[in-house]
Amino acid sequence: MTDESFLDGEHAAFLEQLYAQYQQDPHSIAPQWQAYFQRLDAAEPTMAAAPLNGQVLAQRSEQLHVSRLINAYRYLGHLEANTNPLGDYAYKVSVPQLMLEHHGLENISLDTVFDPGSFNLTAKPTLGNIINALRETYVGNIGFEYMHILDIQEKRWLQKRIELDKGRAKLSHPERRKILEQLTAAEGFEQYLHRRYVGQKRFGLEGGESLIPMLQTLIHEGGKQGLQEIVIGMAHRGRLNVLTNVLCKPAGELFEEFEGKIDETYTGDVKYHKGFSCDVGTEGGPMHLVLAFNPSHLEIVSPVMEGSVRARQDRRQDKDGDQVLGISIHGDAAFAGQGVVMETFNMAQTRGYRTRGTIHIVINNQVGFTTSTVSDSRSTYYPTDVAKMINAPIFHVNGDDPEAVVYVTQVALAYRQMFQKDVVIDLVCYRRLGHNEADEPNMTQPVMYGIIRSLPTTRAKYALRLAEAGVVSEGGGKGLIDAYRTKLSNGGITCCNSQTRSGLPAELQTHWKAFVGQPWRQAIDTTCTAERIQSISERWVSNIPKDFMVHPRVLKVLEARVAMGRGEQAADWGFGETLAYATLVEEGFEVRLSGQDCGRGTFSHRHSVLHHQQRREQWVPLQHTTDFQAKFTVIDSVLSEEAVLAFEYGYASAEPNTLVIWEAQFGDFVNGAQVVIDQFISSGEQKWQRLCGLVMFLPHGMEGQGPEHSSARLERFVQLAAQENMHICIPSNPAQIFHMLRRQMIRKYRKPLIVFTPKSLLRHPLAVSTLEDFTSGKFEVVLDDVDITDIAAKEKVKRVIMCSGKVYYDLLEERRKHELTDVAIIRLEQLYPFPAQELVDVMEYYPNIEKAIWCQEEPVNQGAWNGIKHRFEAYDYANVACVSRPAMAAPAVGSLYMHQRMQQALVCEALGLDK
Question: Domain Transketolase-like pyrimidine-binding: where (predicted)?
């Protein structure tokens, strides 16, 4: 038995019983175990078997107890580790399993030699040396949690690295002085701002200054290992310090923000929400650094950062994550308390969202906000316990030991580079001031802050340590303080390794300037020739491998699309949408489509992924449109709205030339991602001057499916619409979705596009388009009445109904049924930016209007009405009245019968018919 991994598990009792059985009858156990115990016996001096059998058994039992002790330290040593800089304030755990008495070894001589098994020991393996090495490694200033990892290779790698190093960094004098310099910058920055801007919020890093050498280690060690880009996501605490001392933001720019000097073109944001990017030099070459912009919703930036990392990796074709790394910096209470952390972890190794390992840093203040104690913040022992769901190693480190911090950072980076998986560093520190600088923590945490105020700073402790070791003199340490204060006062860049040139090759840079300040009305051609459409549609079927067994119903859909491409059959929604993707990838635009059921489509209309009916194989026709095409990616996402939408926002914000689409399974479910919409999608440009071309597909329509399968909450989007921050569209036929999607990419304009897509209209016999609709025209923001076309007929119209979405077809069918000739129905296909001029142009065709109506199927307090009614006030014709369902607390009724009655009533009321 060559693999002795069983010694790492809690198997000692079993092994003792097995060995006793072996002593009685060797042949009663398996041959592999016989061989193992024979080798164990051979390691001891030869003894007379009969009289010494009991003694041999005792020695064998002692060996197993030593193995059990080693295993206990690996599993539980972190509980006794000295990870808390507050010392006696922290609750100390006594772990009996780490005591010799627990294993019956208290009477064994410390000079007794034992087999340490897989424990990596360089000294002679006496009991004393084994214990000393275990305590040095596992109960020092670092607590290592990794025995929960299921992969034995990862576990072995960590054991060897940690145990051979005895959990300590091997640093030269210059490296130790560099750490002191970084701590000096971290502390000096906060002290300078505290004096210069008294009482202003900055969410300082006091107490957690070791974060700066940690990040610098990741940057420079990462540079040596070939990393070329790092994207960081973090909340408030320490952000200004990181901006200045890591990302090289000029101090003068920060001072102007403290003094209120901002660009008034945009609404802007507070300084501790802002991001930055720069290029720094490392031994491995230039490194591009990005700090993502982040609102006060703390952990929501984590999936946004991951999306940005994935976009950069895809751009570089960095399949192993060797070039681009994501770093996520968390607070302890938020890490344990906010569900988006779990959602983001769940994406870590999935096909559509993995970023080949993220390094998570928890700035563990040991208090949530200012008042929340640990017992009120979580139900777990550590704030990091949620990371165990993906078998991530977790390193708890005392923030007052900068060298330990540097060491775990080195190990974490090496692990990530080796295994391309997430790793967590729990930086156990404290907050020297309150939640913010105006806060008084003694009101709620008097004992904790009594200890904190008696502690010397991390920098002071480390400077004394280096002075005692002869690494620096006391005068040298003082010189660092003065030098940094001078650089800060001058308002320039305080990082000595910053570069002015870009560290990214031209082909890897994103160029957003072409999209800045562009009007949404642009003359572009979104049409496609009939020959090209026919060729594309035929290849959807002809390119399928001959032996690929397609589901019969799906094959009929594809064959129907071939007929549509030839003009032999009216085009449905799936055809128009898929044709848009095919033409875009042919033209060099990548397409990324994700959602919980988007491969097939929730309502079985898309079928962008074909499944072999007898083998676990897939075929994606849009990946085989032509020999030279851009990438088409479709992902059936994890069951999440918040994290997935945030990821796609991050991706789209980093990649302007990819059509990035997120589709809700039902539009109602977007509620679970509202924070992403409010804090990023609708306001990111105004707050942070960041453009984004993300598209959201939200299936919407009152189909009698109840309150949770009807409404994508259109009212929320029209309420958020301002300053041309987004497009809100409700296309009503296949050609419209075709032209709209092509418009989104072809024009030099990038804003989020919110699309309220249909459900029943996907197969509605009237919701179709002709081949000519694709070869000519454009996306029409307003569609005139399709039945009333000549001037004489338009002059007879007395009532005009304006509407959007599915209700149009209900109105159309009812009008045709009653042969009404004095009622026109106009569709608003774009609700924002509101097409005021286009609507006026259409309304002028109807000079004899007596009544104008906005008709919506949503309740009057929901839907578009309250967000657009002020748009009609400037028109000369009669006031617009709203016809809708009555005000309701829920979006829809639960009874299909009641739904149909209400729908019929509002359609009749809009048309002027008796109910």
Answer: 571-764
CA 882 from chain centre, in angstroms, equals 41
pLDDT digit string, tens, across residues 459-477: 999 999 999 999 998 777 7
Q: Do residue 213 and residue 195 come from a single domain?
A: yes
pLDDT digits (tens, 9 = 90+) for 667-704: 999 999 999 999 999 999 999 989 999 999 999 999 99
- List the beta strands (DSSP E) in 276-406: 276-282, 285-291, 324-331, 358-364, 394-398
Q: What burial letters (b/e) apply to 691-717, b meaning 16+ CB within 10 Å?
A: bbbbbbbbbbbbbbbbeebbbbbbbbb
- The pTM for the full model equals 0.92
Structural element, H or E, at residue 335:
helix 332-337
Cα–Cα distances in angstroms (integers) from residue 39 to residues 2, 32, 34, 570, in the given order: 11, 11, 9, 79
Q: Are 561 and 590 in contact (CB under 8 A)?
A: no
Q: Is the pLDDT of residue 780 over 80?
A: yes
Range of the domain at 881: 782-911
Q: What would the mean pLDDT of 58-83 be, rounded to a whole number? A: 90
Across 109-123, 362-376, 709-723, 802-816, least confident range:
362-376
Q: Are 565 and 538 in contact (CB under 8 A)?
A: yes
Residue 455's CB: how many other CB atoms inside 10 A? 16
User: Is 184 in the same domain as 218?
Assistant: yes
Report the domain count for the chain. Answer: 4
- List C-alpha distances in Å: 136 to 8, 108, 163, 402: 19, 21, 9, 17
What's the rounded Cα separation, in Å, for the pair 633 and 659? 10
Mind listing the pLDDT tens digit for each residue in 92-136?
Answer: 778 999 999 999 999 999 999 999 988 988 889 999 999 999 999
* Residues 315-330 pLDDT 10s: 999 999 999 999 999 9
- Which tokens go with 363? 């700035």
CB half-sphere exposure, 485, CA atoms < 13 A: 14
* pLDDT above 70 as % of the chain: 93
Q: In one letter, which amino acid is 20?
A: A
- Residue 397, token pair as written in the block: 């480190």
Domain boundary among 448, 477, 496: 496
What is the residue whose two structure tokens read 């968390």?
A: 330
Residue 380 is classified by DSSP as S
Instruction: Check pLDDT > 50 for residue 46.
Output: no
- Based on the fold, state whether residues 760 and 798 are members of the same structural domain: no
Select from 195, 198, 50, 76 the least CA-distant residue to 143.
Answer: 76
**Cis omega (within 30 of 0) on the bond before 833?**
yes
For residue 42, pLDDT over 70 is answered with no
Q: Are 207 and 242 in contact (CB under 8 A)?
A: no
Element (H, E) at 178: helix 173-196
Q: Other C-beta atoms within 10 Å of 361: how many?
A: 25
Q: Count how many residues are written for the chain.
A: 915
Asked if 805 and 681 sit in the same domain, the reply is: no
Whether 336 and 191 share a structural domain: yes
User: CB-based contacts of 193: which residues, under 8 Å, 6+ apart?
Assistant: 200, 202, 204, 240, 258
Q: How far is CA 88 from CA 43, 99, 376, 808, in A?
A: 45, 21, 20, 71
Signed CA dihedral, 764, 765, 767, 770: sign only: positive
Beta-bridge mates of residue 754 = 696, 728
Q: At 43, is the pLDDT very low, low, confident or very high (cuts 50, 70, 90)?
A: low
Long-range contacts of 870-878 (CB under 8 A, 24+ apart): 871/834, 871/836, 874/836, 875/840, 875/843, 877/843, 877/849, 877/852, 878/849, 878/850, 878/851, 878/852
- Asked whether the beta carbons of 463 and 209 are under 8 A apart, the reply is no
Q: Compute the distance between CA of residue 603 and CA of residue 374 in angstroms, rounded to an integer.
A: 46
The token duo for 285 is 């070459």
Cα gap 207→187, rounded to integer Å? 9
